[in-house]
Amino acid sequence: MGTEERAAGVFSVEQPLWRAVTAFRLLTLLYAVGRYAGNAHHYSHPAAAWAYMAVLTVWTFATVRVFSTKARCGWWWLWADLALVVVGILLTRSFDQAASVDANDVTLPTVRAAATVLGFAVMGGWRPAALAGLLVGLANIGERGRVTSSNAHNIVLLMLAGVAIGYVVELARASEQTLARALEIQAVTRERERLARDIHDGVLQVLAMVQRRGAEVGGEAAEIGRMAGEQEIALRALIAEGLVPNPSYEAPRRPLHRPEPGEPQDLRALLTPLAGSRVTVSAPGTPVLLPGRAATELSAAVGAAVDNVRKHAGEQAHTWILVEDEPDEVVVSVRDDGPGFAWERLGEAEQEGRLGVSQSIRGRLRDLGGSAEISSAAGQGTEVELRVPRQRVERGSTK
C-alpha cells in the first residue's frame, strides 16, 4: 500500500490499475526496443531511429514514479506521453524504408502506444481513452499515407480496449464511492448505538428515577419530575429515530418545514414532535413516505386531533398515535383515554360554528382523497382513524 493510501487509511481500487499502467509501459517499451533491434537493418536512418528509441526509453523510466499513482500523474503528463508516441509513429515513415512502410512494418513505438491509451482510461474513463485511441489511430493512418486493413484493424482493437478498460474503471470508481458511503454509515450507526447504550445506562435511568421520586414527593418536585419525564421521552425518540422531538406538550404542532408538493416526506418525522409525557407515538421502523403536501396535511390533521384531546379531555388524558404503513394506504389512529362524548355533539358543534373536526380533520382528509372516521362513547374515550390511499395521493401529486 502506498504512502497516500496509508495516510488516508483506506485502500483505493484504482491503485492496482496504476501499478498495471506502470508495468505495462515498461513491458511494452522492452517489446518496442526489441522489435526495432530486430528490424533496424532495413531502416534508412537507423541512427536517428535509435535516438528516438533512447528518448522513449529515458522518458518511460524517468516517469515510472509519476505514472505509479493518480496523485502524481496529471493530465499534462499523459498528454506529453501521447505526444511522444504520436511523434514516434509519424517519424517511422521518415526513418524506415518506403517499401517496409508499404509492407505494413511496425511503427517505432509499436504497442507502447497502447500503454498511453491505458493511462488515459485509468485517469478519466472511457471518453478520454477513446480520444487518445483515435489520435493514435489517425497517426497510424498518417504514417501509412492511407487507410489499410491492417491499421484499421489495429485502430478498432485499440479503441475498443481503451473504451472497455475506461468503462470498467468508471464502474470501479463508482463502486468505491458506494463502499465508502456504506462504511461511513456503518461507522455512524455503531457510534450512535454506543451513545445510545451510554445514554440508556446513565441519563435515561436518572431521568426516570427523578420522575418517579418527584411524583412521590409532590409539590414543586412533581413539576420537576414531569419535566424529567418529558426529557426522557425526547431522548428516547432521538435515539430511536434520529429525529428531534418537541418535548413540550404546549408547543405548536405544525412542522417548521413545508415540503414541496411532490417532494417525498417521511410522515414519522412530522409526527414525532407530537410526542410528550402524555402522548405516545408508535410508528414503523422504516420511513413512511408520502408526497410532501399529503404528509404535511395528514400530520396537521393528527395535530388537530391531539389538540382536541388536550382541550376536551383535559391535561391528564393520555393519547396514543399509531401509524400503519399499508401497501395501498397509510392509516393513522389517534386514541385517548378521556371521558368521550355523545355522537350528536359533533353536529351541534358544527352548527355553533366550531369547525375543528369538520375542517381541520375531515376537510384535510377529504382533500387528499382519504377519510376520517371518529368513534366515541361517554366514558370510553375517543378514537380518530385517518386513512390516506396511496394511489390517489401519488396521482394527485403529479398534476
TrEMBL record:
The molecular function GO annotations come to: kinase activity
Could you list the residue ranges that cross the membrane?
16-37, 49-68, 75-95, 115-139, 151-169
Keyword Lyase included in the entry's annotation: no
What is the superkingdom listed in this entry's lineage?
Bacteria
What SUPFAM superfamilies does the annotation carry? ATPase domain of HSP90 chaperone/DNA topoisomerase II/histidine kinase
Residue ranges annotated as compositionally biased, kind Basic and acidic residues, are 384-399
Histidine kinase/HSP90-like ATPase domain span: 297-391
**What's the protein name?**
MacS family sensor histidine kinase
Name the species this protein comes from. Answer: Streptacidiphilus cavernicola
Name of the gene this protein is made from: macS
